[in-house]
Amino acid sequence: MLVVDDEPMVCEVVTAYLERDGFDVTQAADGRSALEALRSERPDLVVLDVMLPEVDGFSVLSQLRRTSDVPVILLTARTEEPDRILGFELGADDYVLKPFSPRELAARVRSVLRRSMPAASAPRLDFDGLTIDGATREVTCDGSTVELTPKEFDLLAYLAASPRQVFSRAQLLEQVWDSSADYQDPSTVTVHVRRLRKKIEIDPETPRWIHTVWGVGYRFEP
Amino acid sequence: MLVVDDEPMVCEVVTAYLERDGFDVTQAADGRSALEALRSERPDLVVLDVMLPEVDGFSVLSQLRRTSDVPVILLTARTEEPDRILGFELGADDYVLKPFSPRELAARVRSVLRRSMPAASAPRLDFDGLTIDGATREVTCDGSTVELTPKEFDLLAYLAASPRQVFSRAQLLEQVWDSSADYQDPSTVTVHVRRLRKKIEIDPETPRWIHTVWGVGYRFEP
DNA sequence: GGCGTTGGTGAACAATGCGTGAACTCGTCC
DNA sequence: GGACGAGTTCACGCATTGTTCACCAACGCC
Questions:
Q1: Is strand C less than 7 A from the beta carbon of A215?
Q2: What does the alpha-carbon distance between residue B108 and residue B95 come to, in Å, rounded to a whole number?
Q3: Which of these ranges, A46-55, A111-120, B26-35, has the smallest mean pLDDT?
Q4: Quick one: which of A42, A50, A131, A182 has the fewest CB in 10 Å?
């Protein structure tokens, strides 16, 4: 979850409320760093102020829409001309008028997430002897389908979405697991990786797909 | 599909979203050209802004209703609360408050289309031992017809229309149920699935058709 | 090759989410 | 207005899934 606002106060309050709701929040103060954060963090929702220094909210939104379907909630001042605002708001999934109550924002966030979370991103990944289908949540390994639990599937899908990239346990916990939990045991990841290997690897001792990078984390090898 | 709005920005964004959903879109900027387009194009759905120059949306709607049953979705500003009722009396099929998210509009469009053209959009689905006829809303299971309630049929038809794809409960609520309802209990879906299974499955405990995908949702297995 | 550090293993334990039955609301039809 | 059918909501039990922990094995720095 990414919060973009040049007013530190607003940023803080919004962040506090969202974190209280169990979300993991990244902040950005201007359009440029917002776009950077979007690339590096892969948030699953963006709260975006329209009035921003350097690159304004609308530009951020349109750039972001080129590559991503991530839900966006806009913050707009009540005073701006309605017509202009309307244009801005059209690429967004919801909007909140400033000044707003944090409670209302939190409610919108939940509502938008509920609407748009499950459907969107579900491409099909195809490797040599291993296919991962996001739509059916099915994994086939050398032709035969493999039954994976939800977390196992999510973990595999996340790793396979960025082949050869190394992810630390902490990173995986943050991305694949509900970031709501305060602190989680990194060994949780280890256990899931183990079970995953048992299911998709021919020889779990010497993995073909999920490699251990010592002292760092795991990597999916295509 | 015809989109009528005097704001080019709005028109463009709505068009973009609808085209992304595979619809063929014509645009009109005012009431007069909207009526012309209606005559020449014969769209199967109209998205109509109420505030229009020259001839306003309501006039367009009432003129249009003299000759056509085409589904209409009205766009109304959030402030014009009382007009809503007027719109419905005149024969609008749904309305969306401005400013709106394109995603929501697209959902309404799908919902209205589903309601209004049951025959065309619902061909006959034929699986091994199970047939679902959208035109007659009849389901036969191993030769014998099964009596389904409206919701049960809609649910089954929606699932079967995308075999093997997993749908979350929230997704099903949004698509099969009226998306206008702000919050609904996901367990509603569970119960309907149960009743559906009781009617079409030989052994409801180990379903042949509607599979549970743990932690995610349901999937129709052809 | 010793030794601290890091990852793997197995099993017990906790949390989650589904299925079930039954109660409830809301229309509609006699 | 009572009875029925459809749809929705709820509490509870249970199976599946997720997490934690103690212990062991593997690595790598020296």
A1: yes
A2: 9
A3: A111-120
A4: A182
Least CB–CB distance from A118: residue in B99, B103, B170: B170
A33: CB partners within 8 A, 6+ apart: none
Contact A34, A4 (CB under 8 A): yes
Whether the upstream peptide bond of residue B99 has omega within 30° of 0, thus cis, is yes
Among candidates A118, A117, A116, A142, which has minimal Cα distance to A131?
A142
Strands B2-4 and B46-49: parallel
Nearest CA distance, A149 vs chain B (angstrom)? 7
User: What Rg value do the Cα atoms of chain B yield, rounded?
Assistant: 20
pLDDT digits (tens, 9 = 90+) for B166-204: 998 988 887 888 655 557 788 999 999 999 999 999 888
Place of tokens 């899931």: A192
- CA-nearest of A118, A113, A102 to A18 is A102
What integer is the mean pLDDT of B161-167?
89
Strand C contacts in A 119-178 (CB under 7 A): 169
Asked if pLDDT for residue A28 goes beyond 80, the answer is yes
Contact state of A87 with B165 under an 8 Å Cβ cutoff: no
* Closest alpha carbon to C1' of C10, residue: A191
